[in-house]
Structures are given as C-alpha cells and as structure tokens.
Design brief:
Blueprint (H helix, E strand, L loop, with lengths): L2 H25 L4 H29 L6 H7 L1 H13 L1 H8 L5 H20 L1 H18 L5
C-alpha cells in the first residue's frame, strides 16, 4: 500500500470512530451542542488512563510478575508496544536527559511500554467505560434551559 492509501485508511477509521462516538452520545440523548463536551471528557479520561497506567507500571513493575506470560500469549500486541516505545518522542527525550540515571530512564521506558501493552490489551473494556463515563459527565453537568 502507498502512504496515501494508509493515510486514507487511518482517516476512515478515525472518522468511523468519531461516528461511533457521536452515535453513542445520540443514543444517550446528548445533542450536537453537548457532544464536544463529551468528546473532550472522553479524551481527558484517555490521557488520565494513559498516565495512570504508566505511573502504576513504574511502581508495580508488572514485567517482573506476569508480563512474560502476556508477551508469549499476545506477541503481536507486545511487538506494537515495543515499536511504540522506540519511536516515542517523549521517551527519546527522557533518554537524553542528563539528570536521570540510565536505570531510571530504563525503568521509565519499560513502564511506558508495559502501560501501553496493558491498555491495548484492555482496549475492549476501557473504550466503552470511557464512553459511558464521558456521557455520564455530560448528563451530570447539563444545564437546564
């Protein structure tokens, strides 16, 4: 496939995702004016989850416990997580920071990869939960007109 074809596929899947989000909010009685608030809440939840998984993995260190088993059971997801850690601008910046030791940097990078892997593994559960929480947020903060 060409670069343009792969970009078009990405745009179609992104547009399809936005369509699904809009349909979900419509099914909950959330109108067009409130959808923006719902999408922002959904994204804030996503960022919060990503940071939480990263910090959690830094302290819990799941690779010492069960990541080896998951690496064997879900090798495709593991490879994607590894690739993401290699191309991450944030992680590459951390590697170049002088005040972090090599061990700290390795632990941060490993925690990022572990968190990414776990989020991808839990994707079928996390996305519906984020949508539900975002819809509940919009409904709870709805102003009466």
């Amino acid at each position: 496939t060409t670069l343009r074809e792969s970009q078009n596929v990405g745009l179609k899947s992104e547009a399809g995702s936005m369509e699904k989000i809009r349909d979900y909010f419509d099914s909950k009685g959330i109108g067009a004016k409130e959808i923006t608030k719902g999408v922002i809440a959904h994204e804030v939840l996503g960022i919060s989850l990503a940071i939480s998984f990263w910090v959690g993995c830094y302290f819990v260190r799941p690779s010492k416990r069960f990541m080896q088993t998951m690496k064997l059971k879900k090798p495709d997801v593991w490879r994607k997580a590894e690739k993401s850690t290699q191309v991450s601008k944030l992680l590459n910046t951390l590697k170049r920071m002088e005040h972090l030791s090599g061990i700290q940097t390795s632990r941060i990078v490993l925690a990022y990869g572990e968190g990414l892997f776990l989020r991808k593994l839990l994707f079928p559960v996390l996305v519906p939960l984020k949508l539900y929480a975002a819809a509940q947020f919009v409904l709870a903060t709805r102003t009466s007109v």
